[in-house]
Amino acid sequence: MSSTFGTVFRTTTFGESHGLAVGAVIDGCPPGLALSEADIQPQLTRRRPGQSALTTPRDEQDRVRILSGVEAGMTLGTPIALEVMNEAQRPGDYRELQSVPRPSHADYTYRMKYGVAARSGGGRASARETIGRVAAGAVAEKMLRDRRGTEIVAFVSAVADVELEGEPPADLSRDRVDATPVRCPDAGTAERMRERIEAAKADGDSVGGIVTCVCRGIQAGWGEPIFDKLTAMLGRAMLSIPATKGIEIGSGFAGTRMRGSEHNDPFVARGGCGLGTATNRSGGIQGGISNGEPIVFRVAFKPTATIGRAQHTVDYEGNEVELAARGRHDPCILPRAVPVVEAMAALVLADLALRQAARG
Amino acid sequence: MSSTFGTVFRTTTFGESHGLAVGAVIDGCPPGLALSEADIQPQLTRRRPGQSALTTPRDEQDRVRILSGVEAGMTLGTPIALEVMNEAQRPGDYRELQSVPRPSHADYTYRMKYGVAARSGGGRASARETIGRVAAGAVAEKMLRDRRGTEIVAFVSAVADVELEGEPPADLSRDRVDATPVRCPDAGTAERMRERIEAAKADGDSVGGIVTCVCRGIQAGWGEPIFDKLTAMLGRAMLSIPATKGIEIGSGFAGTRMRGSEHNDPFVARGGCGLGTATNRSGGIQGGISNGEPIVFRVAFKPTATIGRAQHTVDYEGNEVELAARGRHDPCILPRAVPVVEAMAALVLADLALRQAARG
Amino acid sequence: MSSTFGTVFRTTTFGESHGLAVGAVIDGCPPGLALSEADIQPQLTRRRPGQSALTTPRDEQDRVRILSGVEAGMTLGTPIALEVMNEAQRPGDYRELQSVPRPSHADYTYRMKYGVAARSGGGRASARETIGRVAAGAVAEKMLRDRRGTEIVAFVSAVADVELEGEPPADLSRDRVDATPVRCPDAGTAERMRERIEAAKADGDSVGGIVTCVCRGIQAGWGEPIFDKLTAMLGRAMLSIPATKGIEIGSGFAGTRMRGSEHNDPFVARGGCGLGTATNRSGGIQGGISNGEPIVFRVAFKPTATIGRAQHTVDYEGNEVELAARGRHDPCILPRAVPVVEAMAALVLADLALRQAARG
Amino acid sequence: MSSTFGTVFRTTTFGESHGLAVGAVIDGCPPGLALSEADIQPQLTRRRPGQSALTTPRDEQDRVRILSGVEAGMTLGTPIALEVMNEAQRPGDYRELQSVPRPSHADYTYRMKYGVAARSGGGRASARETIGRVAAGAVAEKMLRDRRGTEIVAFVSAVADVELEGEPPADLSRDRVDATPVRCPDAGTAERMRERIEAAKADGDSVGGIVTCVCRGIQAGWGEPIFDKLTAMLGRAMLSIPATKGIEIGSGFAGTRMRGSEHNDPFVARGGCGLGTATNRSGGIQGGISNGEPIVFRVAFKPTATIGRAQHTVDYEGNEVELAARGRHDPCILPRAVPVVEAMAALVLADLALRQAARG
């Protein structure tokens, strides 16, 4: 069950990086929603590597096919199976690594857990597993947009030590984010980020960074008290993405240095429907439940573990070795992580929105 | 189901701050484990307010009673119901707040969610809800200690801008943590933290901070791939604690500034059983699965929302008001949050340890 | 998690027959429902043994207490904890049985499963465990009655070879059912059932029988396709009750002898709201989903395993022994099973009604 | 989540009868199990219609493909996605039925539930949905056979009023069951069953019947107390199969007429490992937990709702109509139901066997 996410809007992903296919099955999507592959493909294409000189050159087509749950362009309320065939299967690139666990990768822990080594490509721990998430997330987004008016936009807010200062731009949109190859909506910052990535690449090294996500058009009342708080579900969702090491919501770690009188968000009247807050240090969530303000959170990605430079480590028998990656590697996962963060946010919000509808 | 945590070792908490009782039911604790109230009470007592001049003066006895699942001092493998009666019921203190939602508190969002206002004391959003977690966490800890050799110790590593520098002490223990009222294992830092808390208290204000948690005696292989990764489950668990705004594991946000070659933890031989790592920037978790090194993570707590100082805000109708808390308030939740963080870590680890045992 | 039932309206029961208390925690009951102990106690009292000469003489008070989730007579939407203290703790009666597993009882299988023998009273396998179900079921019934107009009435339709012929009476009600001590709504049949029970009792023996349950005021559309069909959930619920060996819905096993043309229920027009069926061989469920007609099903209970007569069997070591029960025994569980069947039906319907509300 | 079955060994099915594909994803199958399509295909082929003159002539290839979770002939412990493409898509046959709900079919209830009518072939309510179950069940069976020594064999024990008397043959096997087209292991009874089916077919009518299932090689201790008893899980599993109206375990409904002294199964010594029972009226399950004896249960199937004969009913607007099926219909689902019952039994046992392994 560890490959399933959600309680009412439930997604199960499947697929190894070098098996026949990857994909997802969504159980619990409401009926009557307009849906076709065209709603899903753009996010898969955004997730694809090889889209710019900055990211991994492995070429993948990643065409999604809806196998079930949709008839005549409308969802039936039945499970929606989404499939992306794997086209490039080159296990040879990875074969050499088998006697040496790659440092800070999943090789060692998977072997300890399962007692079998995945033959190739890291199996389920590969970034390719995120295809199922992105496909399912696009369906969740469609539902949220059509039925609740919710918009989700993520962007790269830091690469190594280069950080986007200040608030996200008011006209934040995916188009604006995609205007630069690093997916940072500020062109100047994006350029400095690009330099950091190129420099690491030239050294056979990698960089990490931060993805910020903003969700607008949220109704107050989403999130379930105690263990399924909106904060808790975002925490689980984001820290299930490969290479993540942290999440902060609203003021986050910086907010721990404030006093309560500075940090509290005073309420203000909004025309007609409920209250708003003058500031949003809460990041749109109070007591674990959405308050109607934009939900804002930041996700920390460590530098990619697979690097071109040689590493001094030991093999499974404990013998010291020098390890160098054979295949080409991705010096910065951040731009490709943007649609994955958006997808996981959509899976969280779709589930909690439907759970809220289950009252009474 | 939002009050249930875990898949195999499952905990359901119940209770409002001013109802008859709070508590928890654990379903899935293995049979044959030695268990009595004496295993649980110490953590409840550590959680209690009023233990020092630094924390809230509300006096609570918080005596736990095991209602079921234990016979002759041994668990039966059946549900363990744990009950703590509420003794101090003084809803009057909170009654005035009802027409005005407290800023950055759960009042507004709960009302938007449920359409009813909890009469008193914040209902389930009260810190008192954590009693059920702490009681259940103590049972999980007992199982982990007796059956797996696991030890969990949390401490306050930052209060406002005062931060404990460097690595946690090698002889970290609960006794050492409890040696100072702020529960910081470095006496000098603890003293400076105390000053920050006293200063805030004098101003009718509050401070936030960071709790760090270290889990030792972990076997490699705990954590389920994809959505139930150890990172993901810690994320959900910690961000379900009231007032939390972030979590980082291992190198966390600071690690995003490193290059892969600096950040990767090289493997080293360990005598006999598996490999270790020379450094622990992974925080004991790789690919979402424990690698046997200590699990280390940090949790951000915002400053307490309830403050004594007057706040400018609006009531539910949108009219501007000055709001001042009537009851005495807790200027710093951090010392009391320590056993809560430990409890949630125990609930995560107990569940994943048992899930790992379900293989094959 | 095996003590939890339901997906949205979730019940977890706890308690051994001779521990401190038995009870249940309900997570997912909607807020704003009028609820007090008075809504729950009548069903617990109906479940109590010792209410007539026909049933077990063990005297229990079984007073329920609501510990949480209700404030000022209204549900809060938070977990509702229900507790019934155990008053009669006489483990001595059962102590002798420990070296010999009682035939067709749970002694042997529990020992094989857990590796520990419950000291007294059969632990969780005792009929006393059903108190938690009946208490929670009464809450579910309250919600169904107030919010959906649903009524649930069960009755004893067979004891040994005495069977109630024909359709249940049109004016079926709990009062009518309770008019006879065996809880059969036909006085003549009830009298013959009573004779069977008395005869078995005189022989130190026991009898089985059938409980029929009728649920009226059902909306069309309850039940989730595939594995959570209304039939499937009733099957799970009823076959989780101790001593049950079968369930049939609508025409059941007798219907397997009909042809399709005889068995199909033709649709008929109903004034205004949807269609009805001219006959109800479907038992109110088609394709696993309610069609709005009354839900009718029958549950088979084997004769009570604990009997007064000596039984030839073997002890745990395989030595042949004569086993005789020491305590007084209940020759017929059927009348007391009536409120348990009603409770489980209520838990199924409340959950599926709320799940249906979670669409869209 | 209604398309998911199991807690540790979890199966999610997907697919409409006339969409692109049907299939299943299994999450929780242990790693290191030898598995290929050849382990799955035989049961799918047994499930196929058109295998004899007795069953529906619609020709389907039903070739299964493993998309993930298996590498080099061994399971990885990751989700196993199983896909069967739909080849015959002839929605025209069913189009006429759309304004008239077929009596005792799922048309009406699905429309009431979802507010949309499945365009063709009954959508998820079609028998074709069982392909995913049979494929997943074959994987569960493989695990049970290889790791636990469990064998599952089902057969047709009644068609209309023709019933197989006495105990199942001692040499019961799938080969023996498949020796007759009706899948009844007694040739004489099988012939009389065939006559009933042919007679119904000649009349454009249908017949129902009973499938009996025997599971051997069961360890004592499978089944979780209270709501996940082995009886309860079998109840849910079997009553989730289309057209089922009842299940009885061991002595079932007939056992309700016995006295306790007759019904109880005395224990007997077995060489070395635990006890057995002299009789098996318990059907291998006591207190909801397996006792090591064969598990035996019977499932009631109503006569197929779709018949060739005209039926007097009403359309969705309430107008009286004569309804006749256009496509050819299957007069008796029983032989094809045999592998479905086996599959569901395997899914129950695999899950409970793994849950038992999670103790300690």
From TrEMBL, chains A, B, C, D:
Reported cofactor(s): FMNH2
Q: Which SUPFAM superfamilies match?
A: Chorismate synthase, AroC (SSF103263)
Q: Where does NADP(+) bind?
A: 47
Give me the residues that bind FMN, please.
124-126, 287, 302-306, 328
List membrane-spanning regions: none
The catalysed reaction is: 5-O-(1-carboxyvinyl)-3-phosphoshikimate = chorismate + phosphate
Q: Does the keyword Amino-acid biosynthesis apply?
A: yes
* Cellular component, GO annotation: cytosol
Keywords of the record, alphabetical order, are:
Amino-acid biosynthesis, Aromatic amino acid biosynthesis, FAD, Flavoprotein, FMN, Lyase, NADP
Protein name listed in UniProt: Chorismate synthase
Task: Name the source organism.
Answer: Kiritimatiella glycovorans
> Which gene is this protein's source?
aroC
